[in-house]
Design a protein that fits this description.
This protein is mainly alpha-helical and 442 residues long. It contains 18 helices and six strands.
Amino acid sequence: MHQASSTSFLQSTRRAIAAAAIAALVASCASAPSGSTTQSPGSTAGARPATTLTPAPTTPAGPDAAALEQQRFAKWVADFRATARASGISEATLRSAFDQVQFLPRVIELDRAQPEFTRTAWDYLDNTVSPQRIATGQDKLLQVRAEADAAAARYGVPGTIVVAIWGMESNYGGNYGSTPVIDALATLGFEGRREDWARRELLAALKILDSGDIARDRMIGSWAGAMGQTQFLPSNFLAYAVDADGDGRRDIWGSMPDVVASTANFLSRSGWQAGMPWGVEVRLPAGFDYGRADMAVRQPSAQWAAEGLRAIDDRPLPEFADGAVLLPAGAQGPAFLVGPNFRAVLRYNNSTNYALAVGLLAQCLGGGPDVQAPWPRSLAALSRSQMVELQTALSQRGFATGAADGVMGPATREGLRRYQRSVGLPADGYPSVELLQRLQRP
């Protein structure tokens, strides 16, 4: 680091100390789709990084502790700045990015938060595929029809799907966050719980600034570093963002041609198959083995049809080479046959509830139906602590679930299915209060 820039950085950091508390109060999270939590949200390529239940260290309270933390943050930034310079980031970009960088305590609070209450699929869909969102989305689809048609012709992704993701990620651009991405990622990197991930994303953000795609003050997004109207992480911006309007910049904040094309390109590169639906609601045959309703159990639609699966409207099933049956509410709720395009949406955000919401919202935007079969609305969702109790009880009975972490992952689902089979229940792997109570009986 040159002496002049080092002095400037330290002076600006001292100025930032007084402002940090105020900044923390106004820093806010983008309206990422509420409740979009299942196995590991955003774990592969989408808008959000994977979450973890690993406890993070706490910081002592008090003015002295706050000042010490600001000094440690300044040291971390200075070290990272040297690393970025060695990676080829220009001095002008480093000055722009870091001379006024701020530590945001609110980002750490949000990152450490572990919500106690989970949501059922129907509660999630009631909120994300609401009549208001459908009506607004149909208007927005008309407004971006030219951009959507161009992207569909180039990438094979229907405009309804792109607009559905736009609606899910930022309520059609109404709220894509107000947190400076550089500040958020620097804070997460300094805090250390996910430092390697945050450092990679921060370096990617610097490369975006260095390329001239966006100015630092316009690079805003969620507290977790997701950016723009369809919430790309910086690494995904570098990989998939498109300059569709030909102005020499990839702008997913203000250019609708760039927003639409970039989102379509993301899905296309994630395995989207042109001309294929995301899935279809189905009726299951009598005696269906609910244990086979799993994203890992895939076979051609013809085979599912031979076993008795039928589309809810009695039309032929889509011709999937590797379709899977999805039961978002277990054996008592609606059933879907999903294909490769559903899995492409999962790469955007690795939540089956999210992918289902995108598919259904797109379907409704195009004038199609919502879910036809009734949801088992009398079933209550297990809280996180109840899920820990369920996992513990299963393990005590010899049905291993892995760590009792309160997260419904594949190991817990398989352990629950094995227990259900052992007592003659449908092995749908769906957790319920009734099952928990049954497990806890002597």
